[in-house]
Prior knowledge:
The chain has helices at residues 3-18, 23-28, 40-47, 51-60, 77-91, 97-121, 162-177; strands spanning 66-67, 73-74, 125-131, 137-143, 151-154. Helix 1 (3-18) runs parallel beside helix 5. The termini are far apart. The longest helix is centred in the middle third of the chain and has 25 residues, at 97-121. It has seven helices and five strands; from the N terminus they run ααααββααβββα. It is α+β, with helices and mostly antiparallel strands.
Amino acid sequence: MRNEYRQAYQQCAQQIVAGHRTLADAERLGYNLDAPVFAVGKTAEMVNIHPQTLRQYDRLGLIVPQRTEGGARRYSLRDIYLILQTQYMSQVEAINIAGIARILHLMEENRQLKRQVKRLRAPQRSSVFAAHSDGEVIEFIQAVNIDDPGTLTQSTYDVDTPDLWRRQLYQCLEITAR
Length: 178
């Protein structure tokens, strides 16, 4: 990973640790939450924990970082968030390691289910393509919409006027009906 990206990830991680940013904020800003960026020492320094504690969490399967080809541990922004959660549950809530492991497992399961619900709620799409006599290709995305099933909406290619768009849509429908 290039140095400027590593610095940006480090700043983002520091803001997460300080409570100024959430994982959702980081994701909205385009950060890959699962990118293996931080070595054990850097991660330990950022979250104010001993590196041996991180290694112990890994051995227990509590927080398992990704590994480089050489076997070195690399932590992501999501891992840093989980470390913070683990510290809070252990030190403030006085939850034992087995309880923390169960909570982290349920948190991950919940995250995965939310992603699945979001994906299932997204409209199913299929594309229809049309070609003009001048050779321009136009893509229409057919969206499954509860209010208006089977509607075609034009995608990325620009059309200057609504009338031209309608003519192109009808041409597209005629081409696909043949």
